[in-house]
Amino acid sequence: MLDNSLDFKEQMAEARRTQILMGAAQVFSEKGFHKATTKEVAKAAGVSEGTIYNYFSTKRDLLVAMVDQLGMNSLKNIFEDSPPQDPRQLLKAIIIDRMHLAAERGPMMAPLLAEIFNDVELRELLYDQVVIPASRHVEQYVRQQIDSGRFRQIDPVIVTRALMGTLVFNVGLKLSGVDDRYNDISFDSLAEQVVTLFLDGLLVDQS
Predict the structure, then answer these.
(1) How many domains does the chain have?
(2) 63, 28 in Cβ contact below 8 A?
(3) Which pLDDT does position 47 carry in this prediction?
(4) Backbone phi, psi, residue 181, to 5°
């Protein structure tokens, strides 16, 4: 007989962890990482301060986990849940996912990310522990396509970072409203054009 109590305990622990991370996101975005306290995070999350330390050793661990869950989980799921084999479909799925993330959570995350960008130690920590592991999914996929002969011989790291830069800049312009020309460009159209830009330059001519 299966021990369902263990599954229930794991689900409850994950729910409590998510509850803490959402509280951290609220407090960090309002007060900044450095000024925020775990006491304030606990209050926002509706838990005791001691409960936070049952899940996270330090405030920095809490920040890394928060950025990872809020910013990278959906990207990881694309690759773990039977990703499309067609490069165009997969790349469009990645782009749409990142656009929706920026639209939904950008206003909450932007102040915090600005603070992180100006803190060298925090920036390096998040790049090493969050960005690089998440980027490896894309890099590995590009490498597989190169090995199969579908993509040209080009460094997967450069391709992945170029895609990230393209998305950050274009999505930032669209959401910020500083360039009126983006007003008539839908997310779907933007995704299609980025896919065309990348893949028509990457795919080997089969003719």
Answers:
(1) 2
(2) yes
(3) 93
(4) -65, -20
